[in-house]
Amino acid sequence: MDVSELAANIQHKGYCIVEDVIPANEVDDVRLQVVAAQQAHHAEAEAELAKTRARGHRIGVPGVGLLKQVLNATQCFAPYLADERILAIAESFFGDFVRISCTDCVINHPGTERGYWHADWPYNATNSTHVKAPYPDVMMHLASIWMLTDFTPENGGTFVLPGSHLQPNNPAAGGMDGVDQDAPHADEKQALGSAGSVLLYDSRLWHSVAPNQSNAARAALVVRYAPWWLNLTPTMRGTPDHERMVLETGGKNYDAIPIRREVFDGLPENVKPLYRHWVAA
Ligand SMILES: O=C(O)CCC(=O)C(=O)O
Asked: Cα of 168 to ligand 1 centre, how many Å?
């Protein structure tokens, strides 16, 4: 599929799959390095989630190992973040000056349970910073899940609900008549593909973690592309927006961790503009 067909799929269905973003002969190495980075930081990542849970928030899915801003720990995937097709799609929606707002990784271990239907920031109303429903029909954020292992029905290719991005609300915070955020949906599909492919979706799309019923971990990167006009400062610790909207409300947030200066300096030249807004002082 070419860029215009892929973008049309996002517009109509809410998502598309971009194949061969990480070449087949490199993706095993990328996966090994990302999994090792997550393992090395697992205890601190869990401690961070525990703090949020202690404030009464639902966060994380049992079985999923997380590392926020994995780019600080390994840059092995950095060259692909400015993939020509992905940037062309992002720019077709947002125009110039696209930025990355999130570079996390998730390792869904065997036994990972089904998650809850949600849309991503800024539409997930479990976060203290979110756009209030009913949403205007505009995509404000382009999310992606990078397959570092093949995504199969058995290991938990992400559940997606085609067309749900056109709904003016999503089930994340509950309270939608007739929608059970934890239950399978008759029209759900699974995003499947070979390692190196990227599920690219409108952040409004309803999606959910799928159970991993295989005997091997399913590894992925979570990368999000934002237009220049989307205010990212509430996601950045240390900013007045973050203090006001997250700390002072005791809320849960979509927090970002800045890129360390030396990591930023070593990024490929065509990737630096995507992170320039977000370098540690
Ligand atoms: O890991 C997955 O399949 C889904 C992750 C997810 O729900 C998210 O990144 O918002």
From this structure: 21
What gap in Å lies between CA 252 and CA 167, rounded to an integer?
Answer: 24
What are the chain's domains?
A: 3-171+184-278 (2.60.120.620)
* Amino acid in the structure at residue 201: Y
| Residue 48 pLDDT grade (very low, low, confident, very high; cuts 50, 70, 90) | confident
How many Å lie between the centroid of ligand 1 and the Cα of residue 116?
10
Q: Report residues whose beta carbon is within 6 angstroms of any ligand 1 atom.
A: 106, 108, 115, 120, 145, 158, 207, 209, 220, 222
Q: Which atom of ligand 1 is nearest to the CA of 145?
A: 9
Interacting residues of 172 by C-beta distance below 8 A, sequence separation 6+: 116, 117, 118, 119, 123, 124, 125, 126, 181
CA of 194 to the centre of ligand 1 (A): 17
Which tens digit of pLDDT belongs to each residue from 129-154? 999 999 999 999 999 999 999 999 99
Report residue 86's pLDDT band, with 50, 70 and 90 as the boundaries: very high
Distance from the CA of 209 to the center of ligand 1, in angstroms? 5
Pocket-testing residue among 222, 252, 254, ligand 1, by greatest number of atoms within 8 A of Cβ: 222
Residue pair 212/110 in contact by the 8 Å Cβ criterion: yes
Residue 215 pLDDT grade (very low, low, confident, very high; cuts 50, 70, 90): very high
Q: What is the pTM of this model?
A: 0.96
